[in-house]
UniProtKB/TrEMBL annotation, chain A:
Residues 1-13, 44-56 have a biased composition (Low complexity). InterPro entries: Nucleotide-bd_a/b_plait_sf (IPR012677), Ribosomal_uL23-like (IPR013025), Ribosomal_uL23/eL15/eS24_sf (IPR012678), Ribosomal_uL23_N (IPR005633). It comes from the Eukaryota. Belongs to the universal ribosomal protein uL23 family. Residues 83-131 form the Large ribosomal subunit protein uL23 N-terminal domain. Residues 17-42, 59-70 have a biased composition (Basic and acidic residues). Pfam families: Ribosomal_L23, Ribosomal_L23eN. Residues 1-87 are annotated as: Disordered. This is Large ribosomal subunit protein uL23 N-terminal domain-containing protein. Gene3D superfamilies: 3.30.70.330. The keyword rRNA-binding applies. GO terms for biological process: translation. One of its GO terms (molecular function) is rRNA binding.
């Protein structure tokens, strides 16, 4: 009991020194009380707010370890104080100069340092309104073909044949057919005719019949 | 449908204009299909009418849009480039009236000290 009694006392005193900044109220409490029982109680709350190295000290109650830790904390605080003093000293000696430290170069090459590049935030849009999209569904599909070969395609391969805007691609054609005629498309094949127009073979999905759709559109 | 007139279109709202545009465009596709499948002459002559009607709707839409934008940017310092005065390229780069009026202190002094005098000789 005796060593245990003495253990929390110096631990409390030691922790109070390093942890003064954290709880100014607590050390005052510890210093005031000299009763054994009250000290133990105060040691416990002191141990809780104190840093982790202080806590295992109190539990183990090992004198040399405690001293070493106390010494460490003392030297750490001493080092910080020394550094601060050095800084002040250089400032005093050199005045407004001499406080910048040389950068450590880890490569022989010199690359342009990265500067801050903010994202664009214009004060006014250059164009008042963006251009409207010219490739709408009506513009993509010009008209369906009604040649004999096209008719054959409708009956046999479940495909519709359209003449299409030359700048339209297969994705455009697929989307346009979906929008205009409300049918699902399996695939689109395109070619450019010798007279410069684009022909699109639009194969419909299984659950749609090209013949019915052709009747709806009006080609038959 | 009757003739599409600009004066009537200007009274309409944007949504209504868009709807009308859609209707006209579907009508045009039907007419084009009729042309391919050998339609009646009345249908074929209607193609031009519908095309011009679509053009009128676009005209009114854009005019309204531009007007609203100009209102929006009316008293702002920085306007989009297409809302600024067009004039000519050289005129846009010329000195402003204020800049032409500026004089150096030296010049102001001179003018004050030695103004052009105007005399009248008595007959």
């Amino acid at each position: 009991m005796a060593p245990k009694k003495t253990a929390p006392k110096p631990a409390a005193a030691g922790s109070s020194k390093t942890e003064e900044k954290k709880k100014p109220a607590a050390p005052a409490k510890e210093k005031g009380t000299k009763d054994g029982k009250v000290e133990k109680k105060s040691a416990k709350p002191a141990a809780k707010p104190a840093a982790k190295p202080a806590k295992p000290q109190v539990k183990k109650a090992d004198k040399p370890k405690k001293d070493a830790a106390k010494a460490k904390s003392k030297t750490a605080s001493k080092k910080a104080a020394i550094n601060k003093a050095k800084k002040v000293q250089t400032k005093v000696i050199k005045g407004a100069f001499g406080t910048r430290v040389r950068k450590i170069r880890t490569s022989v090459k010199f690359h342009r340092p990265h500067t801050f590049r903010p994202p664009r935030n214009p004060k006014y849009p250059r164009k008042s309104v963006p251009r409207r999209d010219r490739m709408d569904a009506f513009n993509v599909i010009k008209y369906p073909l009604t040649t004999e070969a096209a008719m054959k395609k409708i009956e046999d391969s479940n495909t519709l044949v359209f003449l299409v805007h030359t700048k339209a691609n297969k994705h455009h054609v697929k989307a346009a057919v979906k929008k205009l005629y409300k049918i699902n498309v399996a695939k689109v094949n395109t070619l450019i005719r010798p007279d410069g127009k684009k022909k699109a073979y639009v194969k419909l999905a299984r659950d749609y019949d090209a013949l019915d759709e052709a009747n709806k559109i009006g080609i038959i | 449908m009757g003739k599409v007139k600009c004066s009537e279109l200007r009274t309409k709202e944007k949504k209504e204009l868009l709807k009308q545009l859609d209707e006209l465009k579907t009508e045009l596709t039907n007419l084009r299909v009729a042309k391919v499948t050998g339609g009646a002459a009345s249908k074929l002559s209607k193609i031009r009418v519908v095309r011009k009607a679509i053009a009128r709707v676009y005209i009114v839409m854009h005019q309204k849009q531009k007007e609203n934008l100009r209102k929006l940017y009316k008293d702002r310092k920085y306007k989009p480039l297409d809302l600024r005065a067009k004039k000519t390229r050289a005129m846009r780069r010329a000195l402003t009236k204020h800049e032409l009026k500026l004089k150096t202190k030296k010049e102001i002094c001179k003018l004050r000290r030695y103004p052009t005098r105007v005399f009248a000789v008595k007959a």
